[in-house]
Amino acid sequence: MNRIARNALALITLTALTLGAFVTSALACGPPPAEVAVQWAVSDHMRAIKAGDAKTLKHVWLPTAKVTAINAKGVAKTGKIAPAIRKWTRTPDKKMTFKLGNIAVTGNTATVNLTLTWHGQKYSEVLTLTRQNSWSWKLAAKTHTALGKPAPTRTAGAPAY
Asked: What is the pTM of this model?
């Protein structure tokens, strides 16, 4: 066996051993802490809203979920998740920003507080998630409240929340 072939074989063997050790140690660690898994689910939700990604939104939400929107005048409207996803994805906001606040996990339920700016309007949100298994959490409810003055007039077809 020539020198190049020996070096290539050594490199392949070393890479395989390194990857094997990494995968084994990752699996040995078990599932992430609940707060981390909840944060992943919420971040997936927020990235999907920002991108207008309906497929991901349908994946991270329970089909029975409810959404409550409270506008700047204090008027609340509660609805099912499917129409909300259609509204959120109709006009994505690439400039949307959000900041996670408190994450509280009790048993199989988590509550997350966050603030976001979407289409120029600031909101305070409370998300409720339920544990599906040790790794997976799904959103079950959302209440968001418009903060400050109402958002500027939106174009026809733009989301109301």
From this structure: 0.73
